[in-house]
C-alpha cells in the first residue's frame, strides 16, 4: 500500500490508509471472537521452574532461531530482486505480496492436521527444516523465475511455521493452568529474534557486499533450530517415532 499510494496521495495519508485497514480488520475480529473455554485462574507472571525443563528451553531456543532468521527474506527479497536481478521497484514489491499471500491458504490446514492427527511439534519441525533448506537454495537463485519459485515456497513454509508455534507450547506443559504463562515467556524470549535478526542480516550484507553470508547465517541458524526442536521432542516422547506431540 505504501509503495502504490505514496506517489498518489503522499506518505502521511498512505500510512493513515494502512491504519484504517488495520482498524477495520481488528473491529471485525473482535466482533467475532468468543471464549472457547471458561477462564482459568491466572498464574504467575514468570514460572521459574520452566527454565529447569530441558525440553521447554530447547523448544524456546529453536523458536528463537526460527524468528531470528524468519523475516530476513521478508525484509530483503525486494532489495535482492532490484539489486541482484535488476527488477524495477514495482516488480520487487510484487515479490513481497507473493511471499505474504502464499502464507494465507497454508495456515488453517496445518493447524487442523496438527490438532487432529500429527501433533503441533511434529508438524513444526519439518516446516522449520524446509525454511532452512530454502535459505540455502536461495544462494543458487540466478533468474527471476527461480526467485519467484523460492518466494512461493518460502512463503508457504514460513507461514506454516509461524502458525504452529503457539499451539506447540501445550505439548510441553503438563499443568494447563500454566499454558498462558509459558506462552508469554516463550514469546518474550523469542521477540528478541525478529528485533535483531534483520539488522544482523543487513550488517552481513553491508560488510561483505553480498547476500551469501546472510543466507548462510540464516540457513545454519535454522538448522540449529531444527536440531534443538528435534532434541526437545526426543526428551518428551523418547525414541517413539509415531508419538503425537
UniProtKB/TrEMBL annotation:
GO cellular component: membrane
Source organism superkingdom: Eukaryota
Keyword DNA damage appears in the UniProt entry: no
Membrane-related topology note: Multi-pass membrane protein
Gene Ontology molecular function terms on file: transmembrane transporter activity
Keywords tagged on the record: Membrane, Transmembrane, Transmembrane helix
Subcellular localization: Membrane
Residue ranges crossing the lipid bilayer per the database entry: 13-33, 54-75, 121-141, 147-172, 184-205, 211-236
Family of the protein in this entry: Belongs to the major facilitator superfamily. Monocarboxylate porter (TC 2.A.1.13) family.
This protein's name: Major facilitator superfamily (MFS) profile domain-containing protein
Amino acid at each position: 500500500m505504501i509503495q502504490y499510494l505514496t506517489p498518489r496521495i503522499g506518505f502521511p495519508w498512505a500510512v493513515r490508509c494502512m491504519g484504517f485497514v488495520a482498524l477495520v480488520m481488528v473491529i471485525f475480529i473482535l466482533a467475532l471472537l468468543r471464549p472457547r473455554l471458561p477462564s482459568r485462574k491466572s498464574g504467575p507472571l514468570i514460572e521459574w521452574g520452566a527454565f529447569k525443563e530441558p525440553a521447554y528451553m530447547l523448544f524456546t531456543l529453536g523458536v528463537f532461531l526460527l524468528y531470528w532468521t524468519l523475516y530476513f527474506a521478508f525484509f530483503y527479497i525486494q532489495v535482492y530482486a532490484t539489486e541482484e536481478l535488476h527488477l524495477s521497484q514495482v516488480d520487487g514489491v510484487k515479490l513481497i505480496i507473493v511471499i505474504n499471500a502464499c502464507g494465507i491458504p497454508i495456515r488453517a490446514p496445518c493447524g487442523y492436521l496438527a490438532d487432529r492427527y500429527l501433533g503441533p511439534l511434529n508438524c513444526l519441525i519439518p516446516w522449520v527444516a524446509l525454511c532452512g533448506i530454502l535459505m540455502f537454495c536461495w544462494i543458487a537463485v540466478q533468474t527471476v523465475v527461480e526467485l519467484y519459485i523460492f518466494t512461493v515456497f518460502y512463503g508457504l513454509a514460513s507461514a506454516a511455521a509461524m502458525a504452529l508455534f503457539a499451539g506447540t507450547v501445550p505439548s510441553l506443559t503438563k499443568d494447563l493452568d500454566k499454558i498462558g504463562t509459558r506462552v508469554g515467556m516463550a514469546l518474550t524470549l523469542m521477540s528478541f529474534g525478529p528485533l535483531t535478526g534483520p539488522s544482523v542480516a543487513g550488517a552481513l550484507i553491508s560488510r561483505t557486499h553480498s547476500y551469501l553470508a546472510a543466507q548462510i547465517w540464516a540457513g545454519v541458524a535454522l538448522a540449529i533450530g531444527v536440531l534443538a526442536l528435534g532434541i526437545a521432542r526426543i526428551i518428551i516422547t523418547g525414541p517413539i517415532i509415531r508419538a503425537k506431540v
